[in-house]
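Two proteins, back to back. First:
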Amino acid sequence: MRTIEEKAREIVGKVGELPPIPGVILESMRLLNDPSSTVKKIQEQVLLDQSLTAFILKVANSALYGLRKEVSTISYAVNLMGYNTTRAILTAYLSKNLYRSRGSKLIQNILWRHSISSAVLGKKIAGHLKTVNSEEAFIACLLHDIGKGVFLKNRSDDFEKVVQLIYDDNKTSIRAEEEVLGYTHVEAGYLLMKNWRFSNSIIDTVIYHNHFSEYSGENLLVPIVSLANKLSHLLGFSFDKREDELIELPGLGLDESALEAIKEGAREKVKEYLEIFG
């Protein structure tokens, strides 16, 4: 059986141009990943992009963080929220822009809702575990379906056919993508994450979020993303409302009561995130 990496290498020419990370975000991410970076340096970099600056300040001043004082500078926002949360906000900005690149507005909105809902659920799951950074889980869940953003950018007409198959024939996205495109969002997402130089721990989640039963590693982000993806489908934040077996629960040490608390806590939070993140 071919690995995702082998499949991805075979379809490089079919995927089309992989969008680059804007320079401002790339450098901002690099600085945020470096504990020795100063807040002043991060602010100088972010301020080069007016739209990104406005997005960060909007989120920082939202009810999500409940800050008592108005946040009017990037440096103040980063100091209050911390580097991990700021990285999560930058990732949301990056993925949102890719999902909103081309194609049907309805499809764009559903993909973004699924991305955000999965991220909120992943953050809730990590919060229950207390062994995984919740912002890392948020970022990984935001990016798990990023290959569909590549479809929207490069093959939006074909992706509309994929969505139609999901609705009309009740097919999974994987099966519908293979039928229409000849490859899936997993391979496209893998190539994009490699191109964007994300960590292997994030790339693992892109590879295995639909194939958790094949995963044999110890990266806890993988079962978290896989479970968050399934719960998002179950709660109706996607093209289809599937009821997949939640095989991730035992390995994460979650029981039914914890699962219900995660789902209940996520419902209202998803609406809040969507209102703020747009």
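And the second protein:
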Amino acid sequence: MDVIKAIESEQMKENAENFHVGDTVKVYFTIKEGDKERVQVYEGLVIAFKNGGIRKTFTVRKNSYGVGVERIFPLHSPRIEKVEVTRRGRVRRAKLYYIRTKIGKAAKVPELIIKKR
């Protein structure tokens, strides 16, 4: 069992979790098409984190032409180049599945304002 943990610890990314549920993020994801590779940017709201360790995933939801689209990304995947936080959200839930039923301004998460002293 220690062999599996050793392999998993090698593949885990450092500082991978610099965002939380409720944040609006840009995920830079490498896509392979035939023999070419390109980076696609997927921007949306993080609505959930699942599992733990190397298997940790996060779900990003966005509205594309009036249709809600969700995508699940493995956090420690080598295909993810970077995750950039564009907006911090203030939420009181671990899973924001209720956002699926909201439309327009009701689906907006309030911004987290950090007070500096």
